[in-house]
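ingest -> validate -> predict -> emit
validate: passed (alphabet ok, no gaps, 344 aa)
predict: started
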Amino acid sequence: MKYIFSALLALGALACSQQDKGQHEEAVLTDTNAVTIAFGSCAHTYDSLPVFTAVAAHQPALWVWLGDIMYGDSHDMGVLAEKYRLQKEKPEYRALRSTAKVIGIWDDHDYGVNDGGKYYTMKDESKELLLDFLDVPADDPVRGHQGVYSAHDYPFGDHLLKVILLDTRYFRDTLAPDLGSTNRYLPNEEGDILGEEQWQWLANELKTSKADFHLIGSGIQVIAEEQGYEKWANFPRARQRLFALLAETKPKPVLFISGDRHIAEVSKITIPGLDYPLYDFTSSGLTHTWGMAWGEPNRYRVDSLIINKNFGLIRLAMQSGRPQVTLEVRGENDELLQQTRIAY
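emit:
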């Protein structure tokens, strides 16, 4: 009986292991050792989306939403549901969905409240609407935990890409307004963004990753410090914890992607303990941007600040086992606005 019981335990453990593995396995993105990924954020509900015609022309294997998929800004789930429906039915977006895998996270406006955090009372109901919009299966792990964070392992050619999408809303602490400067908020020195459950999940994803390259999506900017709006730098302890986690786990190259700002830019920072620089590729917005141009300091900016309507394009190729990455900011009519090449 003891041996039968042990065998049953072993079979159960194997089944759980296989199930967990299956939860993160995705369809092969491409049979080659190169893949194209597109992403963007900030799309007004009642505007057309011609930018998706430009996106589709590059035949990306993957489209990543980084929030503000629509502007719901309501506690009425009927309002959010209708705006998601209208967005999903736009012909340009339907055409992209027919050819590319689509994943994503929310930011504040599709979450339900401008600059909102953990005290938004309808966050669980809003979560289900987002996952339905993204066609997330009923048995997907993301439906079984709080928040909308998720990880996806995508084989391409002989290599593996991991996409980690962080939830920077559901667990996020509150920010106090800054009435003494042009900044919108005061830093919350001890506040958190991810919540302990998400931190532990992220640590495990990084420690156990077999991927050759990692994309980490965040609705808000990770590296930029000087802009006066929402950003990881408003929570300096959490931002430092994120960088320290990367230095501790030492995953193969990581690229952050972010949205929210109605601009595009690439930021770069060097982290002690990590043998490659970190980049944050920001792309926003798909239907609107700043009404006029003005300067904004960013000591980490690699090139120029882009204020045109835009989407982000990432061309990833593996050469001799090392990722070669090209970041492209492209405009509404597919014009190339900026290009950054990274050799890890």
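The helical segments are 2-24, 51-57, 77-88, 91-97, 108-111, 123-133, 196-207, 236-249.
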